[in-house]
Amino acid sequence: MSRAKFRHSRAGGNPFGGSPPSRGRRSGFTLIELLVALAIFALISGFAYRGLNTLLQSREALQKEARKWRDVSLFVGRFERDLGAVVVRPRPSKGTSGSLQPTLTSSLDLTPAIDGLALTRGGSPLQENTLSAPQRIAYRLNGDHVERLAWNGADALPRETPSAVTVLAPVRSLTFRFMDPADGQWRPSWTPPGDLLPAAVEVTAEMASGERIVRLVDLPRVQ
Fold first, then answer.
1. Is the residue at 148 inside a domain?
2. pTM to 2 decimals?
3. Do residues 118 and 111 touch, judged by C-beta distance below 8 A?
4. Which domain holds residue 101?
5. Number of domains in the chain
6. CATH code assigned at 115
7. Residue 55 to residue 44: CA distance in whole angstroms
8. Which three-class secondary structure state does DSSP give residue 114?
9. Fewer CB near the last or first residue (10 Å), C or N of the chain?
């Protein structure tokens, strides 16, 4: 009887009972499932890249805008300090051509002659070098940037080339207006006889991005 049971077990395939192990089915992803997963991953990556790119572009634009207005603030501050320090000397200053220059004028003694703003400003009493003496400075538009010119002293040496520093860029235009103290009218240029100063100076700088920067500065009554 036991031999019959043993034979019956061999015929069933498993002497200890249960079903035989299956060899036809294996665990894993099919090719279609992998393609769908890759498509979803590519779609999510595309959205993430576009979002990151937009964020970086916005950050760059904000930094560029912040630098522009910082430069505008520095330009206006320097312009106000220069006009606030204007000084009338006992004798007129000499230009590079040897001609006498008013304390403040819209005609720059350069070659070729151009319009802008030139003035003699007092030095800083806190300095112990050439900056403590009066100095001739000027503002002009050179291409698309505003330059501040500075000579070594109030009197320019023959054929002296002033040092030029860019104080604002990019700029489309730079204009000045001068208020006549006699009648209060605005003049587009200022070449007075002697050392007569205007009551105020207005500067207008049009940025390359379209903004117009207008600043009005009252001059000290020094004459």
1. yes
2. 0.72
3. no
4. 80-218
5. 1
6. 3.10.610.10
7. 17
8. strand
9. N
